[in-house]
Amino acid sequence: MPKKKLPPAEMPVADHAFYGLVWAGTVLTDRVDRALSKAHDLPVSWFEVLLWLASSPDPVPASVLGNSTMLSRSQVSRVIDALQSRGLVTRTPSTRDARSVEVALTPEGHRLFEAADATRRECLAPVFTDLLDEDDLRALSTVWQKLKANKDA
């Protein structure tokens, strides 16, 4: 006998939308984490730091990484330590703030990021990007930007 579930109509739309965001984030993150770990020995948290570093033409202050990622500052610090031990990033004293360090990808870090990003895109395509059109993707981007902009409200 199949398990009975409530149809979405019996749930307030705001609750259904919230649950959908949580579900999608959890399922997609888990899928990407498994694919990156298997193909590159790279947890999704490490990939997130690489993604932000790869998107910046200049070294990034560690504090900015902490503010940009979904990781805590201590998690960012541990990820940077792990990435540095694998030769994927460098840490240098900041020229603007003597108390800060800046992080940049090494050539090996760029190579790994490119390969891992291809893996991420390939693993998401059948369950995300191939299912959504440009308008859907723009709408999702707008939604998360609104939510993120007001996260401290």
From TrEMBL:
The cross-references to Gene3D superfamilies, in alphabetical order and at most eight, read: Winged helix-like DNA-binding domain superfamily/Winged helix DNA-binding domain
Please list the residue ranges annotated as the HTH marR-type domain: 14-149
Checking InterPro entries in the record gives: HTH_MarR-typ, MarR/SlyA-like, WH-like_DNA-bd_sf, WH_DNA-bd_sf
Signal peptide as annotated in the record: none
Please provide, alphabetically and separated by semicolons, the GO molecular function terms listed in this UniProt record. Answer: DNA-binding transcription factor activity
Pfam families, from UniProt?
MarR_2 (PF12802)
Biological-process GO terms, alphabetical: response to stress
Give the matching SMART domains. Answer: HTH_MARR
Report what the protein is called: MarR family transcriptional regulator
- Organism of origin: Streptomyces collinus (strain DSM 40733 / Tue 365)
